[in-house]
């Protein structure tokens, strides 16, 4: 008997050319993927990939197999969806988004849709948009990002509310006792998220950087910023709602700089090609029940 799952995993590894990326798409561990690929190779008695530190590239045998199954796997996947689409909703949530914002909406959805299951996948922005485009997730809950990250013809954004990007320092920071001007801030290295994030864009706008200025900003991920705040006296720009617990416990403090950064929109991203009743219902409930 042909094991459809082995061929589906083979196709995704071939598409991604990388075990880490394939693991994120499939939501299974790299060792499990490796085992499945080995099982398929043993079943066919051939090697299918060239393995190296740079990734997994199809060899000649793999290319032949891929050409044979490519369309068939997509057709079989869609056949599965006909029966599963009304049972499960795959919700992508940005890794930094606090669950308390959307938990009440999920509870509300289950009150009227007891037979449905919401699978939550915590994703980075890049993976989130990739999975939306490939329809691996039905919906994504996140802050609004630059349109450069995704296909705007296929993926649309629905605003639900606003979050607040603020200057954050540790509780013992020397900056808490200083009145800092915008010039002072431009002369101080500020740590914030990647260049496509609202935190970065709002910071550059408010500090009035010109096109030819050297931008004194370090882009690091959220986890790295929290670690740096523990060991160094630095100024960061973080979404306030992400660190509310640490602010309440006086581990971190909001730095008053005499002006406010623009609010950051948050809401839902969806693929216009993905359209079914339960998804529409869930979107309406999220729009009405998400709370800051």
Task: Give a short summary of the structure.
The protein is of the alpha/beta class. It has helices at 4-16, 19-26, 30-44, 60-84, 103-112, 125-133, 182-186, 198-206, 222-231, 244-248, 277-289; strands at residues 49-52, 55-58, 88-94, 117-123, 139-143, 155-170, 190-192, 217-219, 235-239, 252-254, 263-271.
Please characterize this protein's 3D structure.
There is one protein chain. The chain is an alpha/beta fold and 292 residues long. It is built from 11 helices and 11 strands. The strands form 2 sheets. Strands 3, 4, 5, 6, 7, 8, 9, 10 and 11 form a 9-stranded mixed sheet that branches. It has a two-stranded antiparallel sheet with strand order 1-2. Helix 8 (198-206) links the parallel strand 7 and strand 8. The longest helix has 25 residues, at 60-84. The protein is globular. It starts with a helix and ends with a helix. The model has no long low-confidence stretch (mean pLDDT 87).
